[in-house]
Every structure is written in C-alpha cells, then in structure tokens.
Design a protein that fits this description.
Layout (H helix, E strand, L loop, with lengths): L1 E6 L4 E5 L6 E5 L24 E5 L5 E5 L11 E5 L4 E8 L3 H9 L9 E5 L3 H12 L1 H14 L5 E7 L5 E7 L7 H11 L2 E6 L2 H8 L10 H4 L10 H5 L6 H4 L14 H9 L8 E2 L4 E8 L4 E5 L9 E4 H12 L35 H5 L1 H13 L3 H12 L7 H8 L24 H26 L16
Parallel strand pairs: 5-8, 10-11
Antiparallel strand pairs: 1-2, 2-3, 4-5, 4-7, 6-7, 6-8, 9-10, 12-13, 13-14, 14-15
Helix pairs in contact: 3-4
Length: about 475
C-alpha cells in the first residue's frame, strides 16, 4: 500500500494498492481512543462462532455487534456492520471473553437485546464511499454552526460523524440548558439531504472526542482509557493541600481535572491518622500554633507567631498527641524544643552517566571568558599570540617570589613583541630610518582614494549624486 493517509479519528490508514491500484484501508495499531489491551488474546476461546464483538467508530463511539456470518475476525479488522438505516464501517476493538467483561464494566445489559450484525469485510466501493463521507464532515460541522447561530440557539456543535453510506449523520453538541432544535433538524436535513441525529454530550465527553495533551505531558485520560466520569469537587484539592487556583485545577474541558480524584483517598486516609488540632499547644514560654502539616510523612510544624515562619519547630504526630493529652489535664509542658524531631531528609535523585555521554559542563570553561576567551583560544590555535599563553602558563606554574626592584623595573619596561595580528605595522619601524618621498606620496594617494570611495558609497545609499573630488594641487615649481 502506498500514499497512506492517516485518519486518527477512525484509527485507520487509507491508501492505494500498488499491485491492483484499488483503494485499501489498514488499521493503525495504538491509534484508537479508549483502546483496551486484550490481555486474554492468547487464551483459548471456548465460545461458538456466533460471538459478540465490540466495534469502534469515530473517536470514542463504540457498539456491540454479533458475528452471525461466522467470519474469522481479530482485533484491528475493519468490517461492515448494520446501521439504522443503511450500513456503517468500523474497526474490531475487542473480541473473545473480554467483551463480556467490558459489557459488565460499562453497564450494558445484553438480556433481551437484539444485536446488530457484522455483515462482511469492506470492498473497494465501500472504502471509496467511506472516504467521501469522511471528507464532508468538517465542512458540514462549520455550516451547521452557522445555521444554529442564525437561529439563535444556545448550543455548540462540536463534532459531526457521517455514516459510511452517507445516509445519516450524527451531530454532537453541548448545551447548558434544554434546546429546541426541531427547526435546526429540518434545515440540516434539507441542505445536506441526510437523516439527522442530534446527540448531546458533556464538556468532558467533548474533550475526550477531540483529544489533546494535558499539563502532565500525556494524552488526556478521557481520550485514552477513562469512559466513566465521576464528579470532582474543590474539596479534593483542599484535602491534598493544593492551592485552589481555578486556572491550574481546570482541564481543557473547563471543568476540574479528573486526576484530582486519583490520590484523594490516599490523602484522606493519611489525614485521618493525624491528631485533630483545636487550638494552640500550651508551653511555659509561649503558645505554639500549627503552621502546616505534612500528612504523608506524619509531620506537623508549629511556631509561636502564627503569622511568621522564622522559628518553626517540627513535631511528629505522636509527640503532638502527647502534648495535647498534657494540655487537656490543665498542665503545660516546660519546653516544646524537647519534643521536636529532626525530619529525615529524602534521597534526591542523582544523575548517572549510563550511556557514556560527555560532561554536561564541558562548555562552561570556554563560555566563561565570553568572546575574549574564544579569541584567545583561536589565536593560540593559529599560532599568533601563543607566546602570551605559554608565558602565562609558565608564570602560573612557577613559584611566586618576592619581586626585587630590579625585576619589577625590568618587567615594566616595554618589550618589542610582535603585533597580535599578522599585518605589518603602520608608520616607521624606528626613528633611525626615515621614509622616502615616494612612500609619503603613495600613502597620501591611498588615503585620498579610500576617502573618495567612501563618499561614493554614502551617496549611493542616500540617493544623491556623488561629489567629484578635487584634484590635488601640484606643488609649484620655481
């Protein structure tokens, strides 16, 4: 198969066969929302050929279908199933005995239920019509939003799912109140010539259908494994000592994050084992107020000033219970410092070079000197100025001696060192060798020529004619 086009919402990949040139479709392993790991895949299946399979459609919509034709199906196979009306195409997401457990988990009661049938595997014509239906979904959703806005309906259409044969479309919407969309259904059915089904979902179901990345860096729980939503209250944040900041506690759906309930039972159990503080602890020198408590480590922090943390004393829950029992008898402890404990420092994770990487600070020495340091290294590498580096290293390695007046005078004397660059120095090399007249005239001519070139470039940038230089006057001859 070539020219693969992935459809993440369906968890499949469309392409064209290289041998026959016909349209094909393949399943994307791990590309489905709410995908379930089949841990009973390698176990023997004692059921008959009329098995119940779980079929997944767009995003998180699933259904249970019966294999009345006796097809040999496995997880990931794409099949054509019955719908009302017409046909639809989905992917086998679960099979075997795990389906019965899934029914029990989702609360589906198969007693007295007439299952729809799995008909066949899709052919080339079915795949092409399915692709055409998928291509219409986005434009239909945008148009339906415009129509609902014109009708003044307080609702938001978040997703549209076409049936594979384009006879029906499901419009998923969210609304805070009851919406009368009878007129909307008439307009949609007339414009798109389909059977319209309106399905209301909550904000969390919408986030699960759309998907995304949460603040923890992983995919949304409602999009990967969670299909039963439990209510989340602000009390879950208070129990875990989390700051009640709505911007940090709210998820992409605008509601409180579902993960606030994950560790709430652990914190509630640990908090129930902590002593209940109804007032300050009484001591001979002062009263000590509770500043904060670490329920997981069983530590409580007290201070004489409830509005300051300058002198905080750490107590264990057993020591706090002992002090409370003494205060209840009407007595005061002599000093609270005698009950304080030293908390055990937790082991911080350390970095280990397990793959043979270089040191993370290998560039610090070169970057500490800035551009000057890199320049010095480059000059030393090129051989220019290397004597300075060598002299500096030798001076550092040599033992320091108290400088004598003769040495200090000699060091301060100017030295005839070569220039830092390899260009010849300007001017006369020494006062004893005067320059000739030709050399002086040549230098004056070079300076005049460079000045004229600068004037021309400046005039071209400013868009004005260049000023013609005046010819230097020749000296008069007598």
């Amino acid at each position: 198969m070539s020219c693969c086009k992935k459809k993440i919402s369906r968890g499949c990949c469309f392409g064209v066969s290289e041998q026959t040139g016909l349209s094909t479709v393949e399943n994307i392993s791990g590309g489905h929302k709410l995908e379930v790991y089949d841990w009973m895949e390698h176990l023997p299946n004692p059921l008959s050929s009329d098995q119940i399979y779980e079929i997944q459609f767009k995003n998180t919509r699933k259904g249970f279908y019966i294999n009345s034709e006796g097809l040999s199906l496995h997880k990931g196979d794409i099949v054509v199933v019955e719908s009302q009306p017409g046909l639809d195409i989905g992917t086998v997401s679960m099979c075997g005995d795990l389906v019965a457990r899934q029914m029990k988990r989702t609360g589906f009661n198969p007693t007295g239920c007439e299952f729809k049938k799995i008909l066949r595997r899709p052919g080339t014509y079915d795949i092409e019509r399915w692709q055409e239906a998928i291509a219409l979904e986005h434009s239909t959703m945008i148009r339906s939003r415009v129509i609902s806005s014109d009708l003044g309906l307080d609702m938001k259409i978040g997703d549209v799912e076409y049936q594979a044969d384009r006879l029906k479309a499901i419009f998923y919407y969210i609304a805070d109140q009851r919406v009368d969309f009878r007129e909307l259904i008439k307009i949609l059915a007339e414009q798109f010539r389909i059977r319209v089904e309106m399905k209301q979902i909550g904000a969390r179901q919408e986030a699960g259908r759309i998907g995304g990345i949460a603040g923890c860096g992983r995919e949304l729980c409602c999009s990967t494994w969670q299909n039963n939503f439990s209510s989340v209250g602000i009390n879950a944040a208070r129990v875990q000592d989390i700051s009640p900041n709505p911007q940090k506690l709210a998820g992409q759906c605008g509601k409180l994050k579902c993960c606030l309930n994950y560790e709430m039972d652990v914190y509630a159990d640990a908090r129930s084992k902590m002593p209940r503080i109804n007032g300050p602890l009484e001591a001979m020198d002062a009263q000590y107020h509770l500043i904060k408590a670490d329920v997981l480590r069983g530590l409580m922090y007290f201070a004489s000033n409830p509005h300051s943390i300058s002198s905080v004393i750490t107590l264990g829950k057993e020591q706090v219970r002992e002090i409370i029992a003494i205060n209840r008898r009407g007595e005061k402890i002599e000093s609270i410092e005698s009950y304080s404990i030293q908390p055990v420092e937790l082991d911080e994770p350390t970095y280990e070079n397990v793959v043979g990487q270089d040191s993370l600070t290998r560039f610090d020495s070169s970057s500490r000197g800035g551009r000057g340091g890199r320049g010095r290294n480059n000059r030393a590498a090129r051989g220019t100025g290397g004597d300075k580096v060598a002299d500096g290293a030798a001076r550092q390695a040599a033992p320091q001696e108290s400088p004598t007046p003769e040495k200090s005078t000699q060091e301060r004397a100017p030295q005839n060192r070569p220039p830092q660059n390899n260009r010849p120095a300007r001017g006369p090399k020494s006062n004893s060798e005067p320059q000739s007249a030709k050399t002086v005239e040549g230098e004056a001519e070079n300076r005049s020529r460079s000045r004229n070139n600068n004037n021309r470039r400046r005039a071209s940038r400013e868009g004005r004619p260049a000023r013609t230089p005046q010819e230097p006057k020749s000296p008069k001859t007598e």
